[in-house]
Design brief:
The structure is a homodimer of 258-residue chains. Chain A is α/β, with parallel strands linked by helices and 258 residues long. Chain A contains 8 helices and 14 strands. Chain A has a 7-stranded mixed β-sheet with strand order 6-5-4-3-2-1-14. A 7-stranded mixed β-sheet of chain A has the order 7-8-9-10-11-12-13, covered by helices on one side. In chain A, a hairpin with a 4-residue loop joins strand 2 (39-43) and strand 3 (48-51). At the A-B interface, helix 1 and helix 3 of A face helix 1 and helix 3 of B.
Chain lengths: 258, 258
């Protein structure tokens, strides 16, 4: 079975359309301008992997008939990547063992502060989330897939992306939130088939890559194909895409790579 | 202008359909079986009032073109009523003053623990939620509308409903989550036009009113019309409704009362 990656959401923290906004992106009829908060689902031969549990997780799971999750990987502890934590209950009901959560120690600590009841030894209630915490600072295996954490800079919160490698399958790098990428992480991005990178909007932002910054990084990484994500309503994606080389494209919700 | 109440959501904590469920309610084509998490919006001549900020708030606001909120009233601090807190940003951008939040002191304390940055004196960032906290234990006014907190029992978490009264307007009582209603609160429910009450499912539940329990309370309250909410997928609402007197009905998402 081929490994696939599906974009469950491709927007920045407020989604597109933005509540109460009449701008061109927010009032567009183009379904690609309908973006839920950034998250991806990766299906390997053995594992159903969710990256982040954003506020739209229930809608995303229903849209894609996602019934089973074997591991949740968190990039960082901002609400647009975590606020759907409670929706993970539906995946826990159908498991015999706790649900493995992989992230930086600081992100897992913050999750256990906010959702304290789930992480408490007194969490014995049927129906609650039962997490199994896995702090990661080095590559780890999910079945035959090697997962490599990718440390990046994203304001003051510790943030990682993830690289997925399996022999005979496309290699994928996913970095939805970053302002800059350290050299040591750039070194981990060699030889990718698909590189997915934050490209918030055309103009600079203090904690996210702008479109020109993302393009510069994409060209340095040199993946076969780059997909831009974590998009703001300030981006006219059709106009901007017309200026890009064909191996750099905007991702959109429901897009599946394999 | 007539006061209106719109049901933004009418489901229990997991929504209907439930992720991965094939039961009759979850696979139904009846749009009334498509229920987001319980929340209501009340529009008076002067105030746009949101009761709870559940996980579906962005979808609910987009569906109803809700652009302005003057006050958020919280019934209690469970995630199906609070997880959309971060979506309130969109309403804060369009205000000159902090957004008033009304609830029990314990609920506001828990919100300030979980969303600590918003409540911090160091919250000076453009775009963040700026809350103005109003603990309530007695009736208060929003314009010409008197709002009365309604203490109820709902497991271990302090929980309230709200009654809305204005001369010449329908009087409304809203209690989305309760296992029982104390006599002192029943005394506050006299003479209602609309009574909205938790009726989770036909069978008993440790922290919610069952359908038979809700009907018994509705008959004791004697409102002109009772609307059942916080519905579980275990309820065949059409079958159950056929057994009810005409002044007790199931609410559904998008229903507006006036």
């Amino acid at each position: 079975m081929k490994t696939t990656l599906t974009f469950l959401g491709t927007s920045t923290s407020v989604g597109i359309p933005v509540i109460g906004c009449d701008c061109a992106s927010c009032s567009s009829d183009d379904p690609k301008n309908d973006r839920m908060r950034s998250s991806v689902h990766i299906q390997t031969a053995t594992h159903s992997i969710l990256v982040d549990s954003g506020p739209d997780l229930r809608q995303q799971a229903l849209r894609h008939n996602l019934r089973k999750v074997d591991a949740v990987l968190y990039t960082h502890c901002h609400l647009d990547h975590t606020a759907g934590f409670d929706e993970l209950r539906a995946f826990c009901w159908r498991r015999d063992s706790p649900l493995p959560l992989y992230s930086s120690l600081s992100c897992l600590d913050e999750l256990s502060r906010v959702y304290a009841w789930a992480f408490s030894p007194e969490n014995i209630y049927k129906g609650y989330i039962k997490p199994a915490v896995h702090p990661v600072a080095a590559p780890f295996m999910l079945g035959e897939t090697k997962v490599t954490p990718l440390p990046v800079q994203h304001g003051s919160v510790e943030t990682i992306g993830f690289r997925f490698d399996q022999a005979g399958q496309p290699s994928i790098g996913y970095i939805p939130d970053a302002k800059s990428i350290p050299e040591t992480t750039l070194d981990l991005l060699d030889g990718l088939d698909h590189f997915i990178i934050d490209a918030l909007r055309p103009s600079p932002h203090p904690t996210h890559l702008s479109l020109p910054e993302a393009i510069e990084i994409a060209q340095a990484v040199g993946a076969k194909q780059t997909w831009l994500t974590h998009i703001s309503h300030e981006t006219d994606y059709l106009l901007e895409e017309s200026k890009l080389p064909p191996n750099i494209r905007f991702a959109h919700d429901t897009l599946t790579l394999s």
